User: What shape does this take?
Amino acid sequence: MKILLYNPDNGVTRNFMPHLWMFLLQALTPPGHEVVLIDGNAQPMDEEGIARYVRENNIGLVGIGAMTRMIAKAYRMADAVRAAGVKVVMGGPHVTEMADEALGRDGGSRHADAVALGEADETWPRIVEDAVRGTLKDVYEPVDDFGQERKPSLQPYPEIPWDKIKLDQFNLLPRALHPPLKRIGAGWGTFRIVPVESGRGCPYGCEFCTVTGFFGDSIRFRTNESVVNELLLLKARAKEEGGQIAVFFIDDNFAINVKRTKSLLRDIIAANAQVHWVAQISANLLRDEELVDLIAAAGGKWIFIGMESIDPANLADVKKGFNKPGEYGVVLDRLARRNVFAITSFIFGMDNDTPGVAERTLKEIRSWPPGLPIFGLMTPLPATPLYKRLEAAGRLTRPKHWQEFIPFAMAHTPLKMSIDEAHDEVRIGWANSYSPEAIEKAVDALNHKPLGYRINIFIARVCFRGIYFSQMGRLAWLKTILENRRTILKLIRQGLGGGLHAAVPTVATQPVSEQRQ
Ligand code: B12
Ligand code: SF4
Assistant: This one.
């Protein structure tokens, strides 16, 4: 059977890296089937396009995975596939919580023939076999013989054949730049960011997050050897094709067990398996100097930190009191001293937020080493404790916000400000962090570092800008480049002064894919 795994585009930015679930399910598909992957962020497709694709390519089963924000598009695509006479299985965090919605049992129309609940590593082979036999069930649950939920141990972990998988659709470099970039030193013919997991689960249970509910509070790790081998495979592929591959460790908290993380990092260093990587780590775990030393030595370049708020009362409200705003600056300095920088994520519209929260947060940010601040709104995702609390309090203004997804729009009323005020705060955060002046300041803040770091933060900032400000299409990109011409010229002058090789950025970890437009 020919199987299509499809991930819908998010309609706002072009994701900078593909989703791991597709590669994982491809690797877990029983032998004898062909599996094709299409990521809508890399290969835009509409309903008509997918229906044509499944007909022309004789697809026998389509698997669709989506987060809540992409679910409306996922349902539309699923409807088109089913109308073309092909069965659809859906999985991922949204349908796990809202299976009845996907199956049309909540009074709405049916979108999926089957739904895979939770982690599907062990149910996927069964789903494929049932699809071949024509006996697909409505719901697949990861349970043992006694009906108890069973989480995959991750030991053993399937080998993802990164040396063979076609990755053309995920090259982040604009096509026009391939020939000149190939000529700058070795290895810039392609640039890809690849998702790798080293473990699953997070016990912290922050109120707004689906992770503790979905993956459970029991943390599971792959063996160090299996992770190191995957990195070696990726490194070899990058070398062979004269390109760059960076890794995003998608673990929710890469250092949740510090002892184990240190041992993994030591093994990466010992095996010379370093590639440039990004990982998500909570600020409290970055107090450990030895951990930060190992991160830098093992190839870590950017750490994503869910800071959420600079107000301890807000953090306590959402059960994230382990974040201590007073130590954010110290943690970021500790990273920056090792040339590791941070993507700092903030949520506005929290219950103790008042107008002016963006400016108060920006004031703090300006005192930190330059990084990539991102700002979002408090969002009640289905089945989270936050959703339940707001629903019980009658505060949800759009209880099914995912059915009409609007980026950067609240779905409930905050307590100490209006919805419009919360939206304004987010706009202020983005506008002040990604204006040409702010970008130039961030670049200048690294004047004492080699030029590569300045180019890196410049590319990163310009790309991250596209998360909030529309930056899809050639014209929008041209406008951004023109607005930032002062910094670009400055960097070119510095590059010509210091030699071209010094100008090659270490790693850019942002949605550069938008540049392909
Ligand atoms: C990496 C990541 C990202 C990456 C991008 C995604 C990517 N390209 O990988 C980045 C950093 C950009 C990102 C951004 C966001 N993310 Co995110 N992200 C993750 C993260 C940490 C890992 C995803 C992953 O690969 N997991 C590992 C794989 C193996 O798990 P999985 O995807 O769930 O797949 C398993 C099952 O779900 C199932 N499955 C999944 N799909 C399918 C399909 C079929 C057919 C089948 C059978 C099974 C199946 O099988 C898989 C194997 O068991 C998750 C948290 C997490 N641990 O999953 C959050 C998570 C997915 N993100 C989340 C959110 C909310 C966001 C943002 C909206 C945050 C924000 N406020 O901006 C943005 C939106 C981005 C956008 N514009 O699209 C939420 C989604 C919750 C929800 N209900 O939708 C999660 C769960 C985290 C959370 N806090 O709750 N994210
Ligand atoms: S620490 Fe991060 S992954 Fe863990 S529950 Fe909190 S927000 Fe979710």
Summary: Residues 164 and 237 are 9 Å apart (CA to CA).
